[in-house]
Amino acid sequence: MDRLHSRKPIRTTALFVDYENLYRQTVRYLKEEESINGQLADLLYSLRRYLLARRRFRVVLGRAYADFEQYEDGLAIQRVLAEQGIVPCMVPASLDPPARSLQLTIDALHTLQSHPEVQAFVVVSGDLAYLPLLEYLRSHGRQVALLQLAPPSDLVYERLGDRLLLDPRPILEHAGLRRLLTHLSGSTIESTAAPPPVFASLADDPAALRALELIVEHFGRYDEVYLTPLLRKMSETFDASEVEPKELINRLEAAGAIRLERRRGFPYDYTVLILHEDHPDVRRIRETLAATSDFETDTSGDLSEKDHVEDPSGEEPSAF
To answer: Where is this region: Disordered (predicted)?
Structure first.
């Protein structure tokens, strides 16, 4: 049975990451020799996708707090965070231990006052719940969510409830971080699998529906579609003055028609698009094309690996 729902409004969201606490908790699982900063960058990237697709939270403001100079690849991780639209906030380790969490809290409260358009706040940490901050934000009418790698305490469960605690496992699975996922299995929120995607009809979004038709018609024979050449094809097809191709991709993802996954590459990482074959609009478009006797898959838009050129700009469908 198709899981259709009315399109909920997308909520403008601020993301606050206690990066140093997140790093330390990850080290407990994976040890120092792992490429931890790279994995955390993938985690935060997938988190933003998850928030948009599952919660309809679009991150427009992001900050990450740590003494980045203590990491050998500190400059690289700051660059990666900035490319994701997350501002690296330097908090020297020489300051008092609570300085980092205090700075995060102060900035979140300042955002509450200075950005009334921000409707939701998401906090990410290793084992700190930031419970007073989240409860204060809730009392001022904001939606909140917490992503914490360590199992939340009974008090956090009681005060926030399952709905406001993000299970890290489906996010780690989406990011391909299976070694870290193995350490978390059975230790966080008691669910054995990621919830199925929630599908929204595109009937009230004709531009996004036309974009989906283009993707299925021209590139539907591929398991994965490289995003950069796909955006180029969409730019040739759609009037940029009406709608940006990246925005159409965002809307398709929010409706559950597609998902985006990050891939590691050399010299640059890249993103691929994957169709959700169970989405009713995807099925309907495929059935319509199959019923057209003269339909042939277009090979002019071949997105095979040999034609793929990785995009160093880091520009992808994003609210940043």
So the answer is: 293-320
